[in-house]
Specification:
The complex is a heterodimer of chains A (481) and B (447). By secondary structure, chain A is of the alpha+beta class. Chain A is built from ten helices and 23 strands. Chain A folds into two domains: 225 residues, PmbA/TldD superfamily (PmbA/TldD fold, 2-Layer Sandwich); 244 residues, no CATH class. In chain A, the strands form five sheets. In chain A, strands 1, 2, 3, 4, 5, 6, 7 and 8 form an eight-stranded mixed beta sheet that branches. A five-stranded mixed β-barrel of chain A has the order 9-16-17-19-23. Chain A has a four-stranded antiparallel beta sheet with strand order 12-11-10-15. Chain A starts with a helix and ends with a strand. Chain B folds into two domains: 204 residues, PmbA/TldD superfamily (PmbA/TldD fold, 2-Layer Sandwich), CATH 3.30.2290.10; 231 residues, no CATH class. In chain B, the strands form two sheets. Chain B has a six-stranded antiparallel beta sheet. In chain B, strands 7-12-13-15-17 form a five-stranded mixed beta barrel. In chain B, helix 1 packs across helix 2. Classes of the chains: A alpha+beta (481), B alpha+beta (447).
Chain lengths: 481, 447
């Protein structure tokens, strides 16, 4: 592969590039799904290709192809340079990249049991067992289960001398059941909604989830939910479980601290940010118990790698420290624009896309509030919500509204009656400013998200968030009731 | 990039490989794409890309067992490996007694939807368009961001029962967001088949003008308001209703608003929501991902819940006709309407605004999501041009608002539909008018 990447770089430089990098990715996937005892799909896929990114005439160009040959190396590199020269005709200004010592290295993600070596029968058996256990509950009208696996090998080389090879495996699975009544439908999922839990790792991560063992619990909850009262409209104390907090961190901290958004590069599509570059080290983002980090070195996390797609080594950085904005997710170009070094967060969705600033493992660090039971016991009145159902946030990442699958009243320190369709809304700094307790490390875990959309053409990133349950005061719930 | 002749040949070759690998029936989809996008922000081009790919996906059937495999290695060895993987997956899959087999070919006209000007819309021409879009913003001290995308694609489908269809398409989409020095924002967009239809300077002027008028917004209280929704905002509502409620699968599974409501009124009689890939200006495919011809389906007909869309599997299962709305296999979503339109009314957009004593004009929504599928309860934010309407005129910009609203209930209060319609979005997109709704509920606003 080194000779191919060098051909690309040589051709780009010969065509006039002042900087060039090339990524070659080779990926393999498998997906299985079942629904009400029937296989809905068994599929596999592979994709192989390369992309060349250049600076020429002081502007960016990128071209990519699935023809990985010497001929196409030269053709695509020249095309990238021609595109860069077209870019330079509209408002070009010199591109400055933060300094980087070029690295040569290899990195592999964790994997104990290669999921591609496990038989399709064994995978389906696990899903069917859970499916059967959900449908054993009277009142469940629909049960679903899915599983997917990814293996990716990536080579990165740059005209600065970097040459990096990385490979990893991802595994994900989830089950869901639906109780359907007269004009209403409720859902319960395990271990998370929107496809389940995702890990960097192998078959061992799937088996550890015990889908069938958890199926009766969520099925029972779904049926009970159908007859539960709607979450009332109120302003009250809210406790969120770790999985919902993961998405709350994602939408209201992760995205607004992506430095390309802050600088306006995503303004027309995903939006901008309520945070400005000058807010660093001064802006109060949340209460003093709010500590948020970006860490691409967490083993087994979907947000981990050895090097980002600019060849920057993985690292851990503070984003919010004791409630104060302390850092950004950044690239070499965006970091240089504010006089800093890259945080190592440039990631591309496959060979055909140019890298963007993306999240890594962006986590709410654990606090000292003990277990979830301790936190509920410490709460006089409020609502506890679990598992995301819907999400929406404005284009500056301020006004958000989330729906959860299930809620419970909290009264006098105990979990009370179940609540259907719980929804809450807020404004980002007010919400995080009202966080007065985060559970301890024993409750903290990493939640993978494999559906983070950003950029045009749309890119889907695999990221993750660590979180433990946390409490927020004076939150508006039951919106629209 | 390959043409339709080569696409057809590859698909036919793959079907033969799959049958030789032990499949009793086989289907192959060949999708080739040449995609280019020039993005700009801060009045400069900051991302500019082009990519080309050819992918083949094979569905192998043994009895009622199905396996699917895909690859972008389209040399003979790559095809053979892919077809072998699909057949192997079918062998290992359990039987699905409800699978009716692959569909037999059906007649349909599938003319290419290609524009020569779009094929010639290279990086230099896209940069010229960006320059024209940015000009109005730079002249007024505003900052422009957006993109100009050009797609050229081929899809060929063959199956072992004789299906052999192919189509080439081109599409162009241009967007511009202008942010004025005083903080107001404005938006304009174009979607179509033909790049020569793009008036980049006019888009830039529209966005910059809206940005200028959006400065110093008023903070309105939450509540129910009369609204005029521009086509970008209407597109979100139309697509959520169609995608979540108008598939036979969601109906059969009890997750659709159509459950128990077919033949009953669900919106104002002024609303006719259709899926129609056959209309002259459409950019989508005229066959579905099984190669079956798409038909025009009235989803909501003059306010009456009329019909969901189907594919071969769900048509056989429910006894309904196959409307030609299959997605690529394996498909856990069921058939989907991808070429949504709301039929035109007879009003001018300006007349809809002029008829409102007090209300809100919405240019577009942001980050819309569904909270309750059976009622199609949506939430989202307004964005890039929200104005107070007073006595028939847009008088003041309004700080962006969050809505939480059952979509059908909002459409049940429709008072007017414009004659003008705009194609919004990518792929099939949505072809929709301005709507005047008597009651639309806003539940909060941004900070």
């Amino acid at each position: 592969m080194r000779s191919f990447t060098q051909e690309c770089l040589d051709a780009a430089v010969a065509a006039g590039a002042t900087y060039a990098d090339v990524r070659v990715t080779d990926s393999r996937t498998q997906a299985l799904s079942v629904r009400n005892g029937v296989v809905e799909g068994v599929s596999s896929g592979s994709s192989f290709g390369f992309g060349v990114r250049v600076v020429a005439d002081g502007a960016w160009g990128f071209a990519a192809s699935s023809e990985v040959t010497s001929d196409s190396a030269a053709r695509v590199a020249k095309q990238a340079v021609a595109i860069a020269r077209a870019s330079a005709t509209v408002g070009a200004r010199p591109i400055v990249l933060s300094p980087l010592e070029p690295h040569t290295g290899r990195w592999s993600g964790p994997c104990v049991i290669d999921p591609f070596s496990v038989s399709t029968e064994d995978k389906l058996a696990l899903l069917f067992d859970a499916d059967e256990a959900m449908r054993a509950q009277s009142g469940i009208g629909l049960a679903t289960g899915s599983m997917s696996f990814l293996q990716e090998r990536k080579t990165f080389a740059s005209s600065e001398g970097a040459f990096i090879e990385q490979d990893w495996v991802e595994s994900s699975t989830g089950i869901a059941c639906y109780a359907i009544g007269d004009g209403d439908v409720v859902t319960r999922s395990y271990p998370n909604s929107h496809g389940g839990a995702c890990f960097q790792g192998g078959w061992e991560t799937i088996v550890a989830l015990d889908l069938a063992g958890n199926a009766p619990r969520i099925a029972g909850q779904a049926v009970e939910l159908l007859g539960a009262p709607l979450c009332p409209a109120d302003t009250t104390t809210l406790i969120l479980d770790g999985s919902q907090l993961a998405l709350q961190v994602h939408e209201s901290v992760g995205h607004p601290t992506e430095l390309d958004r802050v600088l306006g590069d995503e303004a027309a599509f995903a939006g901008t940010s309520w945070v400005a570059p000058g807010d660093l080290d001064t802006l109060r983002y949340g209460s003093p118990v709010v500590n948020i980090t970006a860490d691409a070195t967490v083993s087994g996390s979907l947000g981990s790698f050895g090097y980002d797609d600019e060849g920057v080594p993985a690292r851990r950085e503070d984003i919010v420290r004791e409630g104060i904005l302390a850092g950004f997710l950044s690239s070499r170009e965006s970091a240089a624009a504010i006089g800093r070094e890259s945080s190592g967060a440039m990631r591309a969705d496959g060979w055909a896309r140019t890298p963007l600033v993306r999240m890594t493992t962006v986590s709410l660090e654990p606090g000292d509030a003990g277990t979830l039971a301790d936190l509920i016991a410490d709460t006089d009145s409020g609502v506890y919500m679990e598992t995301n159902e819907s999400w929406s946030i404005d284009d500056r990442r301020l006004n958000f509204q989330f729906g959860c699958e299930i809620g419970w009243e909290i009264k006098n320190g105990t979990r009370g009656r179940m609540l259907r369709n719980p929804v809450y809304t807020g404004i980002t700094p007010e919400f995080w400013g009202a966080c007065d307790a985060v559970c301890s490390r024993s409750e903290w875990r990493v939640w993978g998200l494999d559906n983070c959309g950003k950029g045009e053409p749309m890119q889907v990133a695999h990221v993750a968030h660590g979180a433990a349950p946390a409490r927020f005061r004076n939150v508006r719930i039951g919106v629209g009731r | 990039m390959i043409d339709t002749t080569r696409g057809r040949a590859l698909a036919t070759e793959a079907v033969a490989f799959a049958l030789a690998s032990g499949a009793e029936q086989a289907e192959a989809l060949v999708a080739a794409s040449d995609h280019a996008l020039t993005r700009f922000a801060g009045n400069r081009i900051h991302q500019n890309m082009s990519s080309e790919d050819t992918e083949i996906s094979v569905r192998a059937v043994i009895g009622t067992k199905i396996g699917v495999a895909s690859t972008n290695r389209v040399d003979p060895q790559g095809l053979e490996d892919c077809c072998g993987a699909a057949a192997e997956a079918a062998r290992l899959a359990p039987e699905d007694p409800s699978f009716p087999g692959l569909p037999a070919p059906r007649d349909g006209e599938h003319a290419d939807r290609v524009s020569a000007s779009t094929l010639e819309f290279d990086a230099a021409r896209r940069a010229e368009a960006v320059s024209a879009m940015v000009a109005a913003s730079t002249e007024t001290g505003a900052i422009a961001a957006g993109g100009v995308a050009r797609d050229h694609s081929v899809l060929a489908i063959a199956n072992s029962l004789g299906t052999d269809v192919a189509m080439t398409r081109t599409t162009v989409r241009a967007t511009v967001l202008s942010t004025g020095a005083a903080g107001g924002t404005g938006w304009a967009s174009f979607s179509g088949r033909d790049a020569s239809g793009l008036d980049a300077a006019a888009l830039g002027t529209m966005a910059a003008d809206t940005a200028r008028r959006s400065a110093d917004p008023l903070e309105l209280d939450a509540g129910a308001y009369t609204v005029v929704l521009a086509p970008e905002a209407v597109a979100d509502i139309a697509q959520f209703i169609a995608w979540y409620g108008c598939s036979i699968k969601s109906v059969e599974e009890g997750r659709s608003f159509m459950n128990g409501k077919l033949g009953q009124r669900v919106t104002s009689p002024l609303i006719t929501l259709v899926d129609d890939a056959l209309r002259a200006s459409a950019t989508g495919l005229t066959f579905d991902y099984e190669g079956q011809p798409k038909t025009r389906v009235a989803l909501i007909d003059a306010g009456i819940a009329a019909s969901p869309v189907t594919d071969s599997y769900w048509a056989a299962r429910t006894g309904r006709p196959n409307t030609g709305h299959a997605l690529p296999a394996p498909n856990s979503q069921g058939p989907l309407p991808l070429d949504v339109a709301i039929e035109a009314g007879d009003a001018k957009a300006s007349a809809l605004i002029a008829s409102v004593k007090r209300g809100i004009y919405v240019t577009r929504f942001h980050y819309v999501n569904i909270e309750d599928p059976t009622r199609v309860t949506l939430t989202g934010m307004t964005r890039n041009g929200t104005f107070l309407i007073e006595n028939g005129e847009l008088t003041r910009p309004v700080k962006d608002l969050r809505f939480t609203q059952p979509a059908l209930e909002a459409l049940d209060t429709t008072l007017g539909v414009s004659a003008y319609r705009q194609l919004v979005g990518e792929d099939g997109g949505a072809f929709v008018p301005y709507l005047l709704l008597e009651r639309f509920t806003f539940t909060g606003r941004t900070a």
